[in-house]
Design brief:
The structure holds 3 protein chains of 3 kinds. Chain A has a two-stranded antiparallel ribbon. Helix content of chain A is 68%, strand content 1%. Chain A is an all-alpha fold. Chain B has 2 domains: 43-166 and 342-450, Periplasmic binding protein-like II (D-Maltodextrin-Binding Protein, domain 2); 171-335, D-Maltodextrin-Binding Protein, domain 2 (3-Layer(aba) Sandwich). Helices cover 46% and strands 13% of the residues of chain B. Chain B has 19 helices and 16 strands. Chain B has helices at residues 2-44, 67-82, 96-105, 118-123, 131-137, 139-145, 147-151, 178-183, 200-218, 265-279, 294-299, 314-322, 338-342, 355-367, 369-377, 429-439, 456-474, 480-494, 496-513, and strands at 51-59, 84-92, 112-115, 154-155, 158-159, 162-163, 171-177, 223-225, 240-241, 249-251, 258-259, 303-310, 326-330, 345-348, 385-386, 392-393. In chain B, the strands form 5 sheets. Chain B has a 5-stranded mixed sheet with strand order 2-1-3-14-6. In chain B, a hairpin with a 7-residue loop joins strand 9 (240-241) and strand 10. By secondary structure, chain C is mainly alpha-helical. Chain C has 2 domains: 1-57; 69-298, MetI-like fold, CATH 1.10.3720. Chain C has helices at residues 6-37, 41-47, 59-67, 71-101, 108-120, 125-135, 143-146, 154-167, 170-178, 183-194, 196-212, 215-220, 230-244, 252-255, 263-298. Chain C is globular, with a radius of gyration of 24 Å. The chains are: A mainly alpha, B alpha+beta, C mainly alpha. Chains in contact: A-B, A-C, B-C. At the A-C interface, helix 1, helix 3, helix 4, helix 5 and helix 6 of A face helix 1, helix 2, helix 4, helix 5 and helix 6 of C.
Chain lengths: 305, 518, 299
């Protein structure tokens, strides 16, 4: 087999395989990207998008008009960093533990249960949290603290609890999802590696440490990198609905997304909302390129692109 | 290779949407042309095909299943009368503005709709100037609605919509359980204060505070006061013209000075009353985050009082919903402003290809009783029946949750005052509402409309600040000493003074132009 | 693994305890939701949320099934779009991801970036809506529930690409080539059987996103209520309630008297949305696990 022939065979089937996905990405993602111009326009419906007036960066101004610009940026970043770190640790740990279980039936059961929170919307999660924390009829105040003879806690006006509550809810909702990703990677690991390790006398911890984790590393890095690209975004439902949009908590719960929502709720302004989205993506883009460059330097195999 | 792919992608990304975007204009006329010719022939002979318009309103929860049936029934009147055929559409209220924006940018046909955001739709040019069409096709409509009311939906003398005609003289009322009032022999002397800024008002509030204290003491199982903070709470008692958005308002009854509502003494006093109520334990402690409808608590027998901003007949409405008898006390006189009138406005979309037909149908919907009844309640004897005393009720075995066209959206229909009243009200209910509309005092700035485009970023930032504090302040849950100064400062940081200055400038110009004296 | 040592048994017991603990944090809230949904409404307001209500009532379920007579139909639509969407989506993602994982494929960096870039930037709802309605005319059709937004996302592509890269030995592919197998043959006969874990995972993700989706129905299905999916029904109700309770509701003086579904109904809506997938999931899972073991044997 000569080299030239090999090359000719190799390339075209790949393009053919790519084609349907590429067409879809073009239609679903790339063609609509012209929508970013909306962020720089003053939309006039009678003229249509293309003919509306250009207004430069005016639509971005409201993002920096607030005296809370620092708070919302800080909250968005800190929560995301926390979620990325804890989410990864919890996801990987659960996946490894699941893999260690001998009973496949129980493994399946646990997995199903862990996935449940993923199947309900944040609105419902907000109601569940409310059912527990509601001052007058909530389960914790009404039943638990009452039985313990303690004073009720005004959960929705005590901001100090919320970094923990939100982190917990985020992990609770996301753990089933992230552990599945890692579990799939673990299941893909060649079993013979473990067997030879066992023959060498390696214990469970040793196997996890020197086989499972190193082989999970690429997946972990990818997952983290992908989260970094969305670091300026926040789960609107988590920060707005679960907190019941309680003003007293804002110092610890207000994020860029909730600010944008509250600012534009009554304005109904397409241009300003796309400006906000563009700003978030742009920051994410810069960060991801930077982080990816670092990863490429340290460990080029695992860089995203 | 890479370059080629990229350039193809770029070319595609650039040209396709352009073609689509322009296509809006260039493909539409094809159908527009045929409609125009249809219209020309229509004026010649009534046998011509009717013009088709799309009429849209907001629904609550689920889309009514029988829209088509109702549209067909309306068409049986509108085709012979004005040769216009309607297609009814309904969009969930939470997605209503958004969907309208999407459909208008993508060239979807929407001709006539109920706007619940006049100011912002006006600023985005979503509404069509219908002054000339109204002159031509809307004479009856104008006399039914009155020229004065149309000022609220006019900008620079041009009309962009028609206010929904229903009870507009809504006012702040305290609603209390009648049996409990009787039980403790509490008979609040309530007379409507002639001038709300008058000190008589405070006396009324004190009376109410007294009632609350008695109930609090004797009915420990009961929550004394709860109201959804999404509404105006007690803030309705501050006499003001919000000038579209409550950011910079006209206070009292005189002068044209735009001031920051939140900084006024009247507003502060109102907050203090609410805060006193809250600290005294009258108000439900988690009011700021409770999203439950007050009706649920009222029906459960756990709530003594609520604050409602509504028209006459509130007691009947609450009795229907809860099974208890309620005493309603008006604590403020109604006051008509541009905002209270244009809060719901029927308008023709600026992208409509058949505005004449839309206005013709508007004229019919505002003046024809049968059409009004159908828009409000659906098809007679299918979705509703007329009771003996002449009110509208669901037929046997049907209720709001099973009806194919529930009556729960009647308030957004063009003219519910010429329709029959809903069951529970007196047969002359609509007549009373009409009287109230006519006698309510009217703001001196009626007809002023604020163009906020030059200060939109300040306004957005201010909205965010207001949203942070309003629930806590209106519910009394926030400590005023600590939070009120912070609230005022944040408003200043967000640029409320700039907005007020701009509004003052526009208002002065408007006053001069319209010859409104100081 | 026939004989388990005592040490192993203890370890297993500890693992099970950990999982039972975690599962309880999931089950307890769900139990509270279920119990609230069958609590009599006034009881809920009087005595708050309890795990054992004083008064039972199925009124909430009656309300839901009565108010949306088409609810059963909506289940069918949800199921249909989930099955079709998952099959299509999984195929398209797998086919796109595989070439990206091959070192000998020249465009792998470019095409990875093309996919990844879509995670960072999007043109927003308006332009997407315009593209799907004007260019492809999907409005008010079943296609609107399947194609826009959900069919393929870069996250899944990259997950899959990484799996292929880490778990498909290049020697295997080269050996197959030497045996004269074509690229498609290699893909279908060697790569896919070795990739069942990731196929199951991504398949599950796609299925969940279809099952949970309600935005497409909200934006694209404006007339044909017979095409409403289950989540579309449920979320319309929930978001409208929420809207009426928010300060965005400018017509609050008119909607104040409108009685919207109360707490027990909201909870029942949640139950109605989750139960079918709880019932179906074990079947899916069994199928997937079977696939995984077959893959393992072949590998």
């Amino acid at each position: 087999m000569n080299i030239r022939k090999k090359h000719r065979i190799v390339q075209w089937p790949y393009f053919l395989m790519l084609a349907p996905g590429l067409v879809y990405l073009i239609i679903n993602n790339y063609i609509p990207m012209f929508g970013v111009i909306i962020a720089f326009k003053d939309i006039d419906f009678s003229k249509g998008i293309l003919k509306s007036d250009w207004v430069g960066f005016r639509n971005f101004k409201f993002l920096f008009k607030t005296s809370d610009a620092f708070i919302i940026t800080r909250n968005t970043l800190l929560y995301n960093v926390t979620f990325i770190i804890l989410g990864t640790i919890v996801g990987v740990t659960i996946a490894i533990l699941l893999n260690e279980l001998l009973s496949t039936r129980m493994r399946k059961t646990y997995q199903t249960v862990l996935l449940l929170p993923q199947l309900i919307s944040m609105v419902i999660v907000a109601y569940i949290v409310y059912a527990f924390l509601n001052t007058e009829s909530g389960f914790i105040n009404n039943t638990l603290l009452n039985a313990a003879g303690k004073e009720p806690v005004y959960w929705y006006s005590e901001k100090k609890y919320w970094p923990f509550i939100l982190t917990f809810v985020n992990l609770w909702k996301g753990m089933g999802y992230s552990c599945i990703v890692y579990l799939a990677s673990i299941m893909g690991i060649d079993q013979s590696m473990y067997e030879s390790a066992k023959i060498d006398g390696a214990g469970r911890m040793r196997q996890i440490w020197s086989i499972t984790l190193p082989l999970l590393k690429p997946t972990i890095i990818t997952m983290i990198l992908m989260s970094v690209g969305r670091i300026f975004y926040s789960d609107f439902g988590l920060f707005y609905q679960v907190t019941m949009n309680s003003g007293a908590l804002y110092e610890y719960t207000s994020t860029i997304d909730t600010y944008v929502y509250r600012a534009l709720l009554q304005m109904n302004d397409l241009s300003m909302s796309s400006a906000a989205a563009l700003y978030q993506s742009a920051v994410g883009f810069v960060l991801i390129v930077a982080v990816n460059a670092i990863v490429r330097k340290v460990d080029s195999e695992n860089a995203l692109f | 290779m890479r370059k080629k792919v990229l350039s193809i992608l770029l070319a595609l990304a650039m040209t396709v949407p352009m073609a689509v975007g322009c296509g809006n204009q260039s493909t539409e006329p094809a159908s527009g042309d045929s409609q125009q010719t249809a219209e020309e022939t229509a004026s010649e002979g009534s046998a011509a095909a009717p013009e088709e318009i799309v009429v849209r309103f907001a629904c609550l929860g689920t889309v009514p299943a029988d829209l088509q049936q109702v549209a067909d029934a309306i068409n049986e009147i509108s085709i012979p009368e004005i040769n216009v055929k309607i297609d009814l559409e309904s969009v969930s209220i939470a997605n209503y503005d958004n969907q309208l924006a999407l459909d208008m940018t993508s060239g979807e046909q929407v001709d006539l709709f109920c706007s619940m955001n006049f100011q912002s739709m006006m600023n985005a040019h979503q509404l069509m100037d219908i002054t000339d069409y109204l002159d031509q096709y809307g004479k009856e409509l104008v006399s039914e609605v009155s020229e004065d009311w149309l000022k609220a939906t006019s900008v620079n003398g041009r009309i962009y919509g028609v206010p929904v005609v229903n009870g507009k003289a809504a006012t702040t009322q305290i609603v209390m359980r009648k049996d409990i009032l009787d039980k403790y022999d509490l008979h609040p002397e309530y007379e409507m204060a002639a001038d709300v800024t008058d000190p008589v008002m405070t006396a009324t509030i004190e009376d109410i505070s007294h009632i609350f204290s008695v109930v609090k003491e004797n009915e420990p199982e009961m929550t004394v006061l709860y109201y959804p903070v999404s509404g105006n709470g007690l803030s309705g008692i501050v006499n003001k013209d919000p000038l579209d958005d409550s950011i910079g308002v006209l206070m009292g009854t005189e002068g044209f000075e735009v001031v920051d509502l939140y900084e006024t003494d009247e507003y502060m006093q109102m907050l203090e009353i609410v805060r006193d109520w809250y600290t005294a334990g009258y108000i439900k402690s988690d009011i700021a985050t409770d999203t439950e409808n007050e009706m649920s608590y009222m029906a459960a027998g756990r709530l003594f009082a609520t604050i409602s901003e509504s028209e006459i007949g509130t007691d009947a409405q609450y009795k229907n919903g809860t099974g208890y008898d309620w005493t309603c006390i008006k604590i403020k006189e109604p006051y008509l402003t541009s905002q209270s009138l244009n809060m719901m406005t029927w308008a023709v979309s600026s992208t409509s290809q058949v505005p004449e037909a839309a206005v013709k149908f508007m004229n019919l919907a505002y003046t024809n009783k049968d059409v009004a009844n159908m828009m409000c309640y659906g098809v007679k004897d299918v979705h509703w029946v007329l009771t003996e005393e002449g009110t509208v009720a669901y037929p046997e075995g049907v209720d709001a949750s099973t009806s194919g066209y529930p009556s729960s959206t009647y308030w957004e229909m063009p003219n519910s005052l010429i329709a029959d009243p809903l069951v529970g009200n007196t047969p002359d209910y609509n007549e009373l509402l009409r009287q109230n509309n006519l006698t309510a005092p009217v703001s001196r700035a009626m007809g002023f409309s604020f163009d906020n485009s030059s200060v939109s970023s300040e306004i957005a930032a201010i909205y965010a600040v207001v949203d942070e504090y309003r629930a806590g302040l209106l519910g009394g849950a926030l400590d005023l000493d600590e939070n009120y100064p912070r609230f005022i400062q944040k408003l200043k940081d967000a640029g409320i003074d700039t907005v007020i200055a701009e509004k003052q400038k526009q208002l002065d110009a408007w006053a001069q132009e319209n010859g409104v004296s100081e | 693994m026939g004989i388990t040592s005592k040490r192993e048994k203890i370890a297993q017991a500890v693992f099970h305890l950990v999982f039972i603990g975690i599962c309880l944090t999931v089950i307890i809230p769900f139990l509270l939701v279920f119990m609230s949904s069958i609590t009599e409404e006034n009881e809920l307001i009087r005595n708050g949320y309890r795990f054992w209500p004083g008064k039972f009532s199925f009124a909430a379920y009656e309300y839901i099934f009565r108010s949306s007579t088409a609810l059963v139909r909506a289940y069918g639509i949800s199921l249909l779009i989930t099955v079709v969407g998952t099959i299509l989506g999984l195929s398209i993602v797998t086919l796109y991801a595989y070439p990206l994982s091959r070192p000998e494929f020249k465009g792998k960096n470019l095409f990875t970036f093309i996919a990844f870039f879509t995670m960072l930037f999007n043109g927003g709802l308006v332009s997407s809506y315009l593209t799907w309605t004007r260019l492809l005319n999907v409005k008010n059709s079943i296609a609107a529930l399947i194609f826009p937004f959900l069919l393929m996302n870069a996250f899944n592509v990259i997950l899959m690409k990484n799996y292929f890269k880490a778990n498909i030995p290049s020697e295997l592919i080269e050996a197959a080539r030497i045996d004269g197998a074509g690229e498609f043959g290699i893909f279908f006969r060697i790569v896919l059987p070795l990739s069942t874990p990731i196929l199951a995972t991504v398949g599950l993700f796609v299925a969940i996103s279809y099952w949970n989706d309600w935005m497409n129905g909200l934006y694209f299905i404006t007339k044909r209520t017979d095409l409403f999916s289950l989540q579309n029904y449920l979320n319309r109700m929930l978001t409208d309630i929420q809207f009426l309770n928010s300060s965005a509701n400018k017509v609050s003086s008119y909607t104040q008297g409108v009685k919207m579904p109360a707490t027990s109904i909201k909870m029942a809506l949640a139950v109605v949305g989750v139960v079918p997938i709880m019932v179906l999931y074990p079947f899916f899972q069994r199928y997937f696990v079977k696939g995984i073991t077959i893959g393992a044997v072949k590998g």
